């Protein structure tokens, strides 16, 4: 049983905070070992004695390892909490964000212990952000979808039971306000007091659950959780009576749980036999015909008749919907319509509905259908609830009833509908929205909803603000009028009072609420439309058709193979569908004649995601970026001739970086080759050795078994995704006709495809990556190479892990686990991806992560010899830093005065995929006897000294420069957002991210689409100009996650000024041939493509420009103009300062006055704090802070420590600074001072590492 949406999306069910350090509502706790989890919270009494516990276990590389650690944690929880009569324990494990919550749920078996099943997705809203809305969404920043399987505790309402205060209190008794991820998921019927119809009876009037197993997409990782809940009967819900039963249920669920489903996008294969509307069209006209005349209209709507459409379009192209909203607000003056703020007699709006019953033959997988709908409309919420009987509810809605974080609340008004314009046609889409904004009937309907919500919020909130008076919310195929409201909840109010105040809104019921509610109570309604004065039956019926178009499109009958009009379309359709079944359903298509059969076949596939572009070069890089984000190949389709050659740069990059890519090039048949025909080149193995595999597919013929196409496609995908991953080229020959024109062919070639055509699985199944030898357990004594490596690792006293380019999150977690097990510091390259959120990602707090090794190594003399490791373990691919590579080579070469370092290079894959038990080899044999605390302290001190010096020096630079851009971006990037760095200076100035080589805008656009989250790309002006056609992909990809292009314009190729040849040639010659200065109006280029653009030339404007761009929630460009002159000198001055700071810190360790020079003895020493004091300061600034407008003073605290170095005849005095920046840090100076004063009372008598790197330490002999 399936239903279209009729639930409002309760924020109690979908508040999804991520593990971000910036979220004040989140406490991130880490147990030392999975065998000994500890309870971190205990609040809220339920029944007799209920304890709510939230335990975060160490990060794991895979779901399998995460579930193993949970089994052990359940045993501990059962023993420790057996004396509690009631309680709730949430065990969670961070894992790489490799599989989505939906694919995880699709992979779970249909077992009773894993039901009910539930799923909520976020909404990629097109509406610009607002301050109050951001506060209400603070606990959800960076979070994605959540899926649950099985219920640890279940609340299901009987007919007539409502979601009221008693239910909320019973749910809250299991929860802990300080643990926002421990929450109930669910929803309620539109009218909970009405008896449900037969098809809805199983669900009850409401259903909420604490998921037994849950996968949540968080910022930077996913969280797998297992919840145990128990208590005596007597509440409104049901569940185990004691912890032993709860633990048994949890173990059973973990045993039944499976891995995520394999990537696949099969069509929804059902045969729709009939469809009926209730009411039908005739009944609809009769029912609705007289209604509009009976409805009252209290105010005439503002038509905005004075707005020039051309001016409005120009404002929209320049500044997006945000700019257009501001323009309309100015031109409309103070004519805010307050109709509806006071409830008057007489109905002004009634929301009618139409139920559609669809009958079909075949098996319908609701999760597959939901995945298909999600692909089509990522800007809507997707909701799914399935009971053990198989009864299923799923819905799609653009509306959010409310969102809440703490006392901050946000709601929104959504009303009136228009279709979207054709994909890529910005002007047609704009004028449809502009008509919606100016239409009097739609304006009246919209203000009725907005003002009613404002009035409802005023009853339960202290302050209510309409932050966005009137805007447009754009979905995939429709767009609505939209308003955003923010409020502060009254102290006595909670979720129950909010629900009672807001549900149902006029958008789902009508006005006045009770009159409309009473009129609808006799029937259960679906996809409602609002009727106001001026509505017509034809318009409202058409609106209903718009809303269900996506759903009906997925249930369209598939074309039978034997009915294909010609053999070309048959082969092309086989190829396209097999790719979709293999999960490769993103098709990047460049227009052309010879490739018409391929393009037509892809367009017929209901699950195909099509990315069109006129430039094959940009298209290839878009596919490359998409594959970097997803790990699976996007498919590029081109015509014949030089169109194929344009893909060569992307193919080379894919080969060099190990990124999967699938090229489908159309070609002429053999008889037309080498005939001098137009647009014909030799395409056979055109990419040479850069392609992992090539196949010249013969021209379609009914004399060749059609299954040949399927096996070829399966081999191509396997070769692209098996190690080593890379590009694969299929050259597809086609004869005329290239159109779907009928041409006879013999269906005998379909023999052997009967099961394939009836099913949804690929023709052949990939059994896994090919390997020359079976993977052996990594146990001592079984492999000579492993024994030798293990001996080297065990014998090392000053080890170092270095990490180059990694392929995915699992490799990153494995690298951090290896460093933790060894007890070695881990130096991470820019390309590793570990610098993004290095302090809060999964497993990061288990290792000492060095992000400034490149700066530590600035001075070779006097530094390198003191930090030379005796063993280096290199993980991952190549490095961006030449200095680190030089240091490793220098370390490995033996010299008369020192031995060479052992340098081990290991593919990280065996560690990430090693058999159970093998990961503990290093831990068992090395961790107990290896003490690397001294080396860790030294490297941590040097790394922090370098980082602090960079921060201090950049703060002292008043004029905007390229390093400021990198620092500001790193500090302000929203949690969960992606970062993509271009080549040249951005990748060298940044401390995080992934770099592109060519086609940077196009690659970043594909990366954002594949990641499914907003992305910021930092790029230079020459790279920007080199990929201008990438802006066309942004224009046509309006529905993709927003890409913010941070364009650093220094007037040319500034990076070449760092080359030695820059000082060897006359400036004119060097500039003309190397730096290639440009003077292009980049803002006009953006405007021509309809991309909003901002100009920044002052440091204090940079932060606000970035926040404004991110708040637009659409593609935009922030152009930062920096001077090219002096850039080299600034970098060199900064490097000199950092090198001096590293020397000071190193000298502090090596040769303090009156102390032995032995690093071993000194680093082992501790300082006993004998006294601590602090002194506030206030200093005037030459320029205002960039993080806070108008702030011209810097406030902070100086901390002074006095101490005695244990076992040494010396004392130490250190002075450090704590200066939080307003607008950047969450703590104020006053809060910092209070914390430090408490610290001054607690420190005396304690022992701390004597060489605190952030203190300017002075040592003297007693």
Automatic annotation (TrEMBL):
Taxonomy, superkingdom: Eukaryota
Record SUPFAM superfamilies: ADC synthase, Enolase N-terminal domain-like, Thiamin diphosphate-binding fold (THDP-binding)
InterPro entries the UniProt entry points to: ADC_synthase, Chorismate_C, Enolase-like_N, MenaQ_synth_MenD, MenD_middle, THDP-binding, Thiamin_PyroP_enz_TPP-bd_dom, TPP_enzyme_TPP-bd
Pfam family, one: Chorismate_bind
Residue ranges of domain Chorismate-utilising enzyme C-terminal in the record: 344-528
Coiled-coil stretches noted in the UniProt entry, renumbered to this chain: none
Keyword DNA repair: no
Ranges for domain Menaquinone biosynthesis protein MenD middle: 751-889
Domain Thiamine pyrophosphate enzyme N-terminal TPP-binding: 572-685
Keywords: Magnesium, Manganese, Metal-binding, Thiamine pyrophosphate, Transferase
CDD domains hit by this protein: TPP_PYR_MenD, TPP_SHCHC_synthase
GO molecular function ontology, one term from the record: 2-succinyl-5-enolpyruvyl-6-hydroxy-3-cyclohexene-1-carboxylic-acid synthase activity
Domain Thiamine pyrophosphate enzyme TPP-binding per the UniProt entry, residue ranges: 1002-1120
Keyword Transferase tagged: yes
Alphabetical list of PANTHER family matching this protein: 2-SUCCINYL-5-ENOLPYRUVYL-6-HYDROXY-3-CYCLOHEXENE-1-CARBOXYLATE SYNTHASE (PTHR42916), PROTEIN PHYLLO, CHLOROPLASTIC (PTHR42916:SF1)
Protein name listed in UniProt: Isochorismate synthase
